[in-house]
Amino acid sequence: MLRNRSMKPVFIIVMALLVIVGSALLPYTAYKYENRRLSNYGIHYQAEPVTIKSSDVTIYDKLSETKNILENSSYINISIDDGNSENINLDKYDLHQNTDEVPEMAAREFVNLFITDDALLRTGYTKKRVVEDLLKSDYIYRGLCLMIETENKDMFMAWNIIFSNGEVDVDIVLDDETGKLLALNIYDNRYYNSVDLFNNGKVNDIYDIIGSLIYDRNFEYRIADYYNMEVVGGLEYATDELNVSKAVQLGVKGNESDIGEIMVPYSIHIYNEGTSVFSYNYFFDEPLEMQEMITDEDD
Length: 299
Fold this sequence. Notes:
The chain has helices at 2-40, 59-71, 102-114, 117-123, 127-135, 196-199, 206-212, 219-226; strands spanning 75-79, 139-148, 155-164, 168-175, 181-188, 229-240, 243-252, 262-270, 276-280, 291-292. It has 299 residues and is α+β, with helices and mostly antiparallel strands. Strands 1-2-3-4-5-9-8-7-6-10 form a 10-stranded antiparallel beta sheet, with helices on both faces. Strand 2 and strand 3 (155-164) form a beta hairpin. It is globular and about 110 Å long.
């Protein structure tokens, strides 16, 4: 009798432990069962790929916003030529241009906007030769940028292409959708004596001629034609003959809406150390007093 009584508490304790362990294992067992059941039915969950698309931004707005975006670093640089290209998946971007063809496109658009017939005549170049020389540069950089408008946060894709031969760097920003050139910087480290280098008729280098565009009173109309817009007005400011800033005011042709007008700045600065910088819709030091440009129509 004593032996049977002594076994009863032990039995109760064992049963209680089994109940506790079973309760703890129940959720895990249920999970394993459900997971196996779903696997048998071939059900799998996978995240949908995300494609980054440009907003509906017109070339008019892109041209107007590019300078602000660059100055405020309101863009995401997706470098594909910095040694990390194997980690970049361009398939998730809704691109319009072929990555391999972008440098040649940038060179062509550069020629279309900045290489005038006068430049070709004075240098003996052809448009084809200018494109070929750019594509033979010692260094060519390709970068993809997600440009973000500073006001309403709309986005568009642009390419940053840099051609460099060690003395001259041609830095281009190209719209991915339209292929139009949005901004340009030319850094020329060769020595300049005076502005006469641009105008003495003896220039034999194409980049010298581009610098002279700042003094070409018809260049503003060339800009307007390139974007299929019209010249509304313009401003200019000069500290001396070697440092001139201008801005052409553009409007949409036959504009009957409230789109407004945009300013596209361009400038030439020649420094004492022999470096010149020609900027177009890029970084621009707003002068305190800009004066209206005198156009041919006013003569």
